[in-house]
Amino acid sequence: MSLLVVGSVALDSVETPFGKKEEVLGGSATFFSTAASFFNPVQLVAVVGEDFPEAHVQFLKARGIGLDGLTREKGRTFRWKGKYGFQLNEAQTLDTQLNVFQDFAPKLPEAYKGAPYVFLGNIHPELQSQVLDQVKGPKLVAADTMNFWINGTREALLKTLKRVNLLFVNDAEIRQLSGEHNIVKAARAVHTMGPSRVVVKRGEYGALLFEKDHIFACPAFPLEDVFDPTGAGDTFAGGFMGTLATAGRFEPDVIRRAMVMGSVMASFAVERFSLDRLRDLTQPEIHKRFSEFKRLTHFEDLAALQA
């Protein structure tokens, strides 16, 4: 079943202790849609400038991503420049140029309006609401947000959250949004704002899923080499939502599998700069790492140990 994503497509310049790349493919919608495309058809809505390389468009097309909603406007493409230290937990933003993204007003092609699964990328909450005004009865609406919107556009964000089923945030953002220091209490507070499910992304420490009567903890996959964490959270969300859309149901076992698959996809994304690792990623590699995840987290029942 089709999965709609609305967000940013960008050109990133990234520096980590392991290298430096200039104006490589980036953006929340790009990482999300690429990851999700391994599991389910994806429809992308975003804007780029006249300078956006055609090679990037062809890459997205080769992944089978629907680009009828990708518009090319007069001007320059959204650019972000950041630098990571050795801990790789948080980027230092060196430069942000919104360019054509500043006037982005998402308009869904008619064929996209019936998408049963919707992911609202990290954009202004008023734009997220504009997307929801155009879709027709989706089964699941998921959204991402960040501290900038929580601080500066809180009322608009709260209005949007009333229409959202699933929220992706990191641990600092959920504390900021809820006013609660404890993450469990913070998740309960966010439930009252609208989302019945909350996924808290915790970087190298994995992710937590909170539902009304269900909590699931998923670790991050231990890696020897991490080159670039840019887009890891969006890649996680893409793996998660792609898995859910393929299953077409939301029972706890499916949600847990989606959490693990999100972590699997994020673990691949950080192994190289930009989307380079996802370019040559294969299904057998995904299945192999998923199985490794299962072994990593498996343990025997206490009764079996006492037998």
TrEMBL record:
Q: Specify the domain of life of the species encoding this protein.
A: Bacteria
Q: Do you know which Pfam families this protein is assigned to? A: PfkB
Family matches, as InterPro entries: Carboh/pur_kinase_PfkB_CS (IPR002173), PfkB_dom (IPR011611), Ribokinase-like (IPR029056)
GO MF, one term, reads: kinase activity
- Which Gene3D superfamilies does the UniProt record give? 3.40.1190.20
Q: Which UniProt keywords apply?
A: Kinase, Transferase
Taking every annotated instance into account, which residue ranges of this chain make up the domain Carbohydrate kinase PfkB? 26-272
PROSITE patterns listed in its UniProt record? PFKB_KINASES_2
Report the protein name in the record.
Answer: Ribokinase
**GO cellular component terms given for this protein:** cytosol
Task: Keyword check for Transferase, yes or no.
Answer: yes
